Amino acid sequence: MDSTPSPSSSSPFDLVSSALGRYIPRGGRATPAGPVGTRDDRAGDRHVTDDAAAGPQDQILGAINLDRDLLITRCNLDAPVFAGLEARPGSPFVDLLPAGDVPTVTRRLRQVLETGEAHVARIQRLRRADGSELVVSLSILPAAVPQEGLTVSVIAMATRLHLYAAETAIGTSLDIGETAQSLAESLLAWGDVAAVDLDFAVWTGEGVTEQARGRIRLRRAALVPDRAWPEGYVTPGKDLPSDASRLLAQAVRRDDAPQAIVMPDREAVERVLGTPRVMRALVPGDRSAGVACIPLVLDGSPPVVLGVAEVWRRADCPFRDSELFDLQELVARTAHHVDLARQHQREHTQVLALQRRLLPRTGGDTVEIASVYQPATPDSAGVGGDWVNSFPLPDGRTALVVGDVVGHGLGAAATMGQLSMEARALLSAGLAPDEVLEHLDETVTLLDDSESGLAAGYSALGSTCCIALYDPVSHRVSLSSAGHLPPVLVSRDGHAAPLAVRPHPGLGAEFALREPFHVHTFDAPPGSLLALYTDGLVEDPAVPIDEGIGRLAEAVAAVHPWDTLQQAARRVVSTLAPGRQRDDVTLLLARMIGYRKEDTATWRLPARDDAPARARAQVSALLRRWRTRDETRDNALLLVSELVTNAVRFATGPVTVRLIRSGNGLLCEVGDTGNGRPRLRRGGPLADGGRGLHVVHGLTSRWGVRWTDTGKVIWAEVAR
């Protein structure tokens, strides 16, 4: 190698080599640290050196010269710490890089070639011939004119610097696997193989407690480097054999306190691990004979062990005490990141379970429902507040609800659950969509003042919601929105477009901004498809929101009437949100079916004394055509007579009678222009009022009231 440049040379490579020349004798290599100077011992001493012992012979600076094709022309990596890096002239520089880093580093090299601006001091890993890696600080310098090419200077990371870099790299993700992987990659600087095994409770997000030693269960979370492993060796995602878990736990808990241990050679490993089965599971290969096991410990009384980190070395390269201290320091500094990931996993699981529970199960006989909920990426702040719900109302209509609660985590989940249940209760009680949103608006305002419970310190102001009610007889939909994106309607001829819904502020808006909620009514004949969604499905920072909604309309329009709706919903989501996203994605598809014309009948009668008799005659003739059982027919006639009599007595204007034949029974509806609410009261035997409702209550399986723009409708169901 070229380690003594010409005195007149001023290239960056020669300048770096000149600095190295103070420590590396002309024509030879530096003598490795330690009493033994053989080549094998020097290769074994390539791990992180002690700062206190660093001297001229522990040189950590090297230089590599590249041409414009990024091929190595000269190099000076004579220091012992660089042993194993095969930087041969004529070979590509990228051969020294881990495969995953090749595109990024190549782009940086090309950028320095094109701009002439140096790229200084970036943490990088270099790959040795045996598959292990060396952590360095890498700088890319342009060659001095008139020369061409680049000079790459590398500085092997000193212990303190590596500890700092490792600590800042670990904990940048809230995903357990990624956190463990970052820890294992940092530990690799001290060995040939690094593994992290975590208590199974960490994976599930449960609280880790002191368990009986015989019941401990470890799962491998990370393993580096990436290579082919022997048969039977435990790889990431697999559970360690129960014997191996127990032995590792016992090894790091000496005198009832978690401590790091070192098994310096294969004899010691066999003595501790015992059986061949456990050896196959834990020992990465014949070359790795010594291991340091460091527990991941949460401080407390008593301390809790989250898992074990293992660093394997060859037997001819024993761990020094200072290295063991460094390993313990790194693991101790980062153990709390693992616990933070565990807590995030627990919260993520709880919120996800709540959201899954809110997803609609079925659509009933009059509408077909399909829904998809796709949570955000694991390293987001937590599962968001997106929710959808669909449920049949007692009066035969179907409610479709979608909402997006502000924020993430348990506060958003608690608010989401409260709003969802409140909306369902109010809709089931017969309130119109705009009235329900008024109540939800008040609820969000009240929750913003809460100082206790799951939502303490959390604000849901600005949350959005959209409610649609589908009438399967008239085939019409009534819809109200509070700041939500407009649903997309696909007609029977395949035309798809967002509905022209009047914009409205979100829930909990300031008093000055509040305005009445608008009810938008539109036709939805059988075969129509309605898509309700949250913004995570259509939002893209690179394109306008209208373009995202347009893409959704195109994707929904491509759904064929014969397609299975659930598969179609998944296909739409995969088309619009195929990759990792930072917000939850929610989609609800509703294909309208409705009732057949021959299964419904409607009569409009004047509010006169003969109205009950006329209603009985019309209903009796219809039930005979439907071939209804005599008992059902008698109950239905009495029910209609009582409801019409009540409407004529207490209301004005015409009376509307509607009869619906469904799979469960007969649904009778009587509408009038009155606004009073009928109530079932307990009265004496001589009481004159309230007997009609007692008759209705005794004849039906359920009954209720809903309000309309012109009055009210009393509905009741008679079993067939």
Concise description?
The chain is of the alpha+beta class.
How would you explain this protein's 3D organization?
By secondary structure, the chain is α+β, with helices and mostly antiparallel strands. The strands form six sheets. Strands 2-1-5-4-3 form a five-stranded antiparallel beta sheet, sandwiched between helices. Strands 7-6-12-11-10 form a five-stranded antiparallel beta sheet, sandwiched between helices. A five-stranded antiparallel beta sheet has the order 13-22-21-18-19, with helices on one face. It is elongated and about 110 Å long.
Topology, please?
Blueprint (H helix, E strand, L loop, with lengths): L11 H10 L17 H6 L16 E6 L5 E5 L25 H14 L3 E9 L5 E10 L7 E7 L2 H11 L6 H12 L5 E7 H5 L13 E7 L17 H11 E2 L2 E2 L2 E3 L2 H8 L2 H7 L7 E9 L5 E10 L7 H38 L8 E8 L9 E9 L5 E11 H20 L4 H15 L16 E8 L4 E7 L5 E3 L5 E3 L21 E4 L5 E5 L11 H13 L7 H12 L8 E8 L7 E6 L5 H15 L4 H21 L4 E7 L3 E8 L18 H9 L2 E6 L4 E8 L1
Antiparallel strand pairs: 1-2, 1-5, 3-4, 4-5, 6-7, 6-12, 8-9, 10-11, 11-12, 13-22, 14-15, 15-16, 16-17, 17-20, 18-19, 18-21, 21-22, 23-24, 24-25, 25-27, 26-27
